[in-house]
Design a protein that fits this description.
- Keywords: Cell membrane, Membrane, Transmembrane, Transmembrane helix.
- This protein is mainly α.
- The protein has a domain of about 150 residues.
- It contains ten helices and no strands.
């Protein structure tokens, strides 16, 4: 079990060794890479909710971090990360998604496509709070040729509610008397859950990559992404 103050202590150690400027850049870089570079698929515990909440806790406990600079930069990083994912999906299509991960990842992509088709504009906002959907919804929206300005507006709302909102939640939870202990408990639960999910996802996906590689050495075995009748690739949910 992770101690309730583990995240706070870790980020405070980072701050003491790097200084405020590098601390800002580290937080912003991880938030950006979580969606733009698919980093959030395997290590959501350092690119997602717990990172934002923890950075807010640190800002509340030290005078070296300006909370306004932190939240503005975090919001911009979250916004730009999704914009990059959207443009990658729009320019490279579903083939870009199919090149990432094993069958578990592909199953998550299919679920994300269904989620996007069901909620449309709101899916981009809601997905911010769902580790897997947060990574794939921007790309799926790009593949589905979502109107650019609609995505822009939904991405902006999502970045504000998630990136700015969770960081401020951590900050104010730690500064309101009598709430700090609860804030540590919440942070501990978040980071523990994220670590477990991230490690389990990485191990399962690695095993499935090996299984896919072994299956490719047996051409007579059916392709899990093929249709039973013709062996053709499953058609994309969205078309240009």
């Amino acid at each position: 079990m992770v101690q309730v103050s583990a995240l706070d202590n870790m980020l405070n150690d980072v701050l003491s060794h790097t200084g405020a400027v590098l601390f800002y850049l580290l937080i912003w870089g991880l938030v950006f890479a979580g969606t733009a570079l698919f980093l959030g698929v395997f290590i959501p515990f350092i690119t997602g909710d717990s990172l934002l909440f923890g950075s807010g806790l640190v800002a509340a406990s030290t005078g070296n971090i300006n909370i306004m600079i932190l939240v503005i930069g975090t919001g911009i990083a979250a916004f730009l990360g999704d914009q990059v994912g959207f443009l990658l999906g729009r320019h490279y299509g579903r083939g870009y998604l199919e090149r990432h991960g094993g069958r578990r990842t592909q199953a998550a992509i299919v679920k994300t496509e269904s989620f996007y088709s069901k909620f449309g504009w709101w899916s981009v906002v809601i997905a911010r709070f769902m580790p897997w959907a947060r990574v794939f919804v921007p790309v799926v929206a790009g593949v589905g040729r979502m109107n650019y300005f609609k995505f822009l507006s939904s991405n902006l709302l999502g970045a504000l509610s998630w990136g700015v909102g969770l960081t401020l939640t951590g900050y104010y939870a730690a500064t309101i008397p009598g709430v700090k202990s609860a804030a540590y408990i919440i942070a501990g639960v978040l980071i523990t859950a994220s670590v477990v999910v991230g490690c389990r996802t990485w191990r399962i996906d690695r095993a499935q990559r090996r299984a896919d590689a072994a299956a490719s050495n047996h051409p007579h075995r059916p392709n899990p992404l093929s249709t039973p009748a013709s062996g053709a690739r499953r058609p994309a949910l969205f078309h240009d």
